[in-house]
TrEMBL record:
One of its GO terms (cellular component) is plasma membrane. Signal peptide: none annotated. InterPro entries: MFS, MFS_trans_sf. This is Uncharacterized protein. Keywords: Cell membrane, Membrane, Transmembrane, Transmembrane helix.
Amino acid sequence: MLYKFGVEAFNGAIVTLATNRYDQDAYETVTLTRTFQSVGLLIGLNQASQCIGSMLIGPLIKRCRTQMVLSATIFIFALSTAIFMVIDVITGGSIKPKGFVAKHKNDFSYYGDYRTDIIIPIYCLSGVTFGMVESIRRVIPANIVGDNIVKLRKMNALVHIFYEIAGVSGALTTALVLIPHLGNNHAFIITPVLFVTSGLIWLFIHSVQNKIDIDENEISTHLKKTKVNYFKAIALTLFSFLQSIYTGAKIVFTSRKFIWLFAVYPLAVYSHRYIENSIAPQVAQRFLQNSDWSQILVGGSNLGELFGALFVFYFNDTMKSPILWVRLDALMLFVICIISSNWICFSCW
């Protein structure tokens, strides 16, 4: 929960910070604004970096204890988030002054004086660590409960419930408290502290010793003895990743039994993330006239995920297939797309 709260504060503040700064740059230079092209690039590169991070983590957990790798990664993640505030302070930025009144809608004089594009590479660095943490934290429930499928499903649902409680509270706290009082250049000041705390807690998590763990320990011992090059292991992981994409695509697109999965599951899930990460900031900035409120929309999305996790937890043994909920998710995404397109057409008119 500490980790998720920190993530929501960080991601929400950074996206709104970039949105405001790009609008401010266009206002000061009297040029055509390209805010959301730049913010889209920022988010896209961050997500690509998450993919890289998820591939880097595999060889590491074969050599070291899972909890140690996770804690070390979250510490690096905390450092990457702190870099933003250090740069802001060094270049003359400060916490939003109490009673600050903007002279115009693009007046953010308490921001540091640095090129806005600097946000992109640092956010990519945090994306690598974010991808590593997100990949490895999903392994912990299985390590805790062992091989029992029913217990694992309930454990995953329980973890997701608390995860989304933190997500909802983190998103709303960021939008309604942290950004209005600290400014989005310092709203994530709590993130490094929460990350370090969660990393220290993860160090004390112990795993159930089961057959899978024993096999992994044997593999880990073998790797240490043979001293397999880490970069070679990464290359093998990348090859396996590409091979799995090919195999999965072959299964899905060559069988009538599975071809529907591509439209119903991957497109629905990534459309959900696209709306949450890209559409929400645009709606908040252009239609609600306040970029900070994008986190309120994200909080609503997290609340929906919380309800879904609660349903899985209580009806785990009754409804084992997720297909119905995936279809409902796709339907709701379709409704949101229609509403968004109507807003855009109305504004253009």
